[in-house]
Amino acid sequence: PLDGAGAVLGALALTACALALVQSGRQGVLAPWTLAAAAATAVLVALFVRAERRHPDPMLPLSLFRDRRFSTANAMALVMNLTGIGSIFLFSLFLQGVQGRGPLETGAAMLALFVPVIGLAPLAGRLTAAYGPRGPATAGLLLDAAGAALLLTVGASSSYGALLPSLLLIGAGTGVMTTPVVHTAVGAVPEDRAALAGGVNNAARQTGGAIGVALLGAPPGPERPRLKSSHPRISVAP
Q1: Torsion angles phi and psi, residue 212, rounded to 5
Q2: Residue 37 and residue 165: Cα distance in Å, rounded?
Q3: Where are the transmembrane segments (predicted)?
């Protein structure tokens, strides 16, 4: 039978989580709307877990997460896209809205993020096949973290050269990490559940991307300074 309740509750929980993150940036962590959205997220997640445990053929079999390899792979997938997809959104806002670059120039500037993904993915596959997924996955996570950390040094007047290391590192981290993360998730379950494991891993990546966009793209609240923007409707938190 179709797990309609699980699908609806999962979607609502993710929506409430994204709303809480956006409102925390707009109105503050303790603002009523933020707290209400956070409370709704907690309730919806609890209802989702309950529905999945009771359904005879759940959309997300929670028993899969008893395997540490499967849980770790999906957690890393979520973090990977939280950083990667969130950064794409943030870089686009920053380059266009804050620094006043045009769409074409912004797209060209962001090639530094996408080229490493394309170039390193085949290498990551060969390394995973030869040495196992742990090394490439860990290396990718560290590259992602380093790229995200370097964003703290970027300001409104920073040159493209100051932004370039973050773009390259986040792109490299995503390119190196994707293959071993998927390999680990699929390899942690019986062969007849490989497709399901791949779907869960993909859902974890998309969830991370949605949270990343909500978190990194949240507009600043009135108590936080805005970076001067060339666009009247765009401002980005420092």
Answers
A1: -60, -45
A2: 35
A3: 30-49, 70-95, 107-125
Label residue 201 exposed, middle or buried (CB < 10 Å: 0-12, 13-18, 19+).
Answer: buried
Cα 151 to the chain's mean position, in Å? Answer: 16
The dihedral built from the CA positions of residue 160, 162, 164 and 170, taken in this order, carries a sign that is negative
Structure token digits, residue 224: 């936080």
Give which of 80, 40, 160 is closest to 112, Cα–Cα: 160
pLDDT tens track for 177-230: 999 999 999 999 998 889 989 999 998 998 888 888 888 766 555 444 444 444
Residue 108 contacts residue 164 (beta carbons within 8 Å)? no
Q: For residue 220, which of 23, 21, 25 has the smallest C-alpha distance?
A: 25
pLDDT in tens, 90-148: 889 889 988 899 999 999 999 999 999 999 999 999 999 999 999 999 999 999 999 98
